[in-house]
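ok here's the first one, seq then struct tokens
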Amino acid sequence: MFSPPIVSIYRLFLLFALALFPVSLSLAQDHGDQDWVFKNSKSLSELWELDEAHHRGTFLITSYKPVYFTLAKYSSDTNKDPKSEGLENTLPEPVALNVIESKFQLSLKTKIFHKVLWGRADVWAAYSQRAYWQIYNEALSRPFRETNYEPEIILNFPVKFSLLGFEGKMIGAAFTHESNGRSEPISRSWNRLGLHAGFERGQWQIMFKNWVRLGGSNDDNPGISDYIGRAEAKVSYDLKRQRFYAIARHSMKFGEKSRGSLQLNWTFPIIKNFSGHIQVFEGYGESLIDYNHRQTTVGLGVSLIN
């Protein structure tokens, strides 16, 4: 059950969303075909250069995950005293964090090998970074609360098959390292090896991922897979110049270890490439430092690349 302040936040969010929806839909109808920047988001074939018609060469930097800046993000339970599961690595005392902060995400990729493994696959290098900024916390000199760094090596195979009305476009594997670059007691990091598959149908795109964590001698966050999860599904839908997408993660376990998260996003047009962005998150692992901390967040900002 949500407490009264959270209910109020959700009511404000819903009212704001309902007020903006007809405006953004009108903009999409009025300007949708007048300029290339107003066209629908790219297909998986374009984004991942899955055929020769879309191949643009190696070492060309393109976008990977969405790039956005959240001006204000409210948390129902700010993690003022982060702790690792089963360890005594705690801060001397809780930090006086604000419940409202800003957040931004940057993400790029580049193809480094084309037509490897008997001419069937491409190899990509990717890098994503998320930062959580206590910009409104004047008492603490507006510090960055948490920054997560996520380099990846991705192997992609173009495919073509049908499943439940969707067309399978790509399958592959990826090695991912994620860390916050901090020292004890708030160091967090993990490595994982995963498989993925991408599907399309009209304006719908679906990406499924699952992974196994690769062990290490120094474990700053034991049990992280039981909180952040072992599998992910991302579903997106484009309506004119608007995009709706959801990211769900789950531990793939039952009982008390049935945990995960759900992130809902809506981007809507403002002008040219400049879009508004509303994000709602509920669950564990909103950032690495929060891997075993559950909260609900609501954020409002701008999106530059979807």
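and now the second one, same deal
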Amino acid sequence: MNRQLLRTSLQNYRTPFEEESTFIKDFVDLTYDDLAFVRERLEGHFTGSAWIVNKRRTHTLLTLHRKLNRWLQLGGHADGNENLLEVAMMEAKEESGLTSLRFVDAGIFDLDRHLIPEKADVPEHFHYDVRFLIEAEMNEPLVLSEESKDLAWIPYDSVADLVGHNQSILRMLEKTSKSEILL
């Protein structure tokens, strides 16, 4: 998924969630910025994430992020890679140790623009997070990365208690809870 394909995918992306639809244009506009895929763009930049679920759609894999101290989906900075599909898969592998990961669909699953707090010499900025739906086997051992305090398969009915009012996580959960994709 190169920059032009990403732009086209973003332009064609539709969602029934109002909060998500309000910033699609901002994502499209960002694809025209030459620094959009590097963290040196201090106003904000693209990230790629993986919403990892088991085949039966009963659990999702979440990480307790070391710096933010919040339960989140796996993902990270593009660091110059304009193929956010690759970024999401690479981050999922690095942050989980899983080898059974596979894309359910190569299309965009979810979008979220969220504010990252100031930390040391990095000012507060936005992450323009493009998310992809990935399946994995739950019986495979997990490997904790240095970016995480914890990593766990969370039953769908426990996610809300764990993430609180994180609307983007709850939105992805709702998207997969209603999914008819059972393999």
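notes on #2: The longest strand covers residues 125-135. The mean pLDDT is 93.
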